[in-house]
Design a protein that fits this description.
Layout lengths: L7 H6 L10 E2 L18 E2 L1 H11 L1 H21 L5 E19 L2 E23 L1 H69 L4 H36 L5 E2 L17 H11 L1 H22 L4 E12 L9 E12 L7 H67 L5 H36 L4 H8 L9
Parallel strand pairs: 2-5
Antiparallel strand pairs: 1-5, 3-4, 4-6, 6-7
Helix pairs in contact: 2-4, 3-4, 4-5, 4-7, 4-9, 6-8, 7-8, 8-9
Amino acid sequence: MIMAFVHRKTLLAAALVCCTAGPVSAAGFAADGADVEASAADERLDLLEACAAAQEYDATIRAMRARHEGVLEEVDKAEAGFMPSVNIAAVRGRNATESTSQGVFGPVEQERFYNSINYSISLRQPVLNFTTIAEFRKAKAMVARSEKELEEERSSLIIRVAEIYMNLLLSRDFLSYTEARIRAAVQTLAQARRSLELGYGRVTDVSEAEAELDMARAEALQASNDLEFQFNELKRLIGFMPAGVYSLVPSRMELSVPGARSLQEWMDKAIASAPMVQRAREEVRIARREREKNKAAGYPVINLNASRTYSESDDNYSIGNTYDTYSLNLQLSMPLYSGGYISSSVRQASAGIIEAEERLKETERKIRSEVRKYYNALVDAIGKIHAYEKAVGSAKVAYEGARKAYEHDHGTVVEIEKAKERVLHARYQLSNIRYEFILNRLVLKHFSGSLSAKDVDEVNGWLGVPFSE
């Protein structure tokens, strides 16, 4: 079960990992800061703090908690069926009776006025009621289902926060890449114009360089807008705009499948522990309890009844009389015929069981498919990271060659900028696959039912230093 996160303020007060590292600035993205908490404006969030803040602020998880609190009351409502019920009634009134009788000299009319008083208290204690028993079992299953739904939503929220956090980091990497493209395009355009002025350049070279610069500036604008969007998406989940976030330190990453399990072991664990599967199992249990309840409607019910009634002048024939009556009895009732309603309800509930069982099978198949997908993606990402690391190394070698060639008058500034742009592009691709690796790692644990705050803390330990411009 996912560990409950402590409040964000407690996390911020603690000495967490990477607190002394520099942030990726969100300056320029809090222009609408009228609704941003002043105390939160200077906060720099790592992944663990962002998840903790989201657990406290996100409307979806708060609504799910409220729903769970409501479902918990189903057990108390069902337990009430085993408890005695006590009723009290009281009547006090003024009455008038007109009567006509046959006298010696003819009819005699008479009007009488009197008070009537009636008090009663009754108790009913269920002794045997199979419907109540079935309702209690169903309520317990409903609570178990709600717990799994809440657990699943907590895990899903972690994934949503991690995805936005990684997208934010990737957007900043892309912005750095586009800025490098702009610098290279500016150098290329300047050299093309000089060549044209000296008489050995071409107009088409200038036009191509201008087009390249315009495209680079357009991509930079898109990257800036996307970075702003990602910061606002993070704000939507945590409730305030952070001053910055922390970037990835590749040397801290553990490039392996967590737990060193095989694919089959991950699948077996997911079928046994995934909240989605457990919720589907509880749906089957609820459907079975519903059928038990419908069957129980045709079983006998035994109640113990006790009452006391006190009355004065109860009717016209007992005016002025007082009665104090005690009663204790054991009552049995059983429906003999209900027009086919009970049998129809049982058949309906049986169909519901089949539906729930088929949905369980579909859920298990989906979980197996998702685990296979993200396990393979995780393994694939590890291989791609190593490949892109080599690509970055090769691009750096090419950059150093262009720089040395320029120092010996065998190259140009444009070639250096182009080589540097290729280095940054390779780094951007490497960053992209690293973020994919982190997300695949977390999502794999999510679908296997083992995602916890410990896993987030582990990834959080891979963060620490600001982006380099």
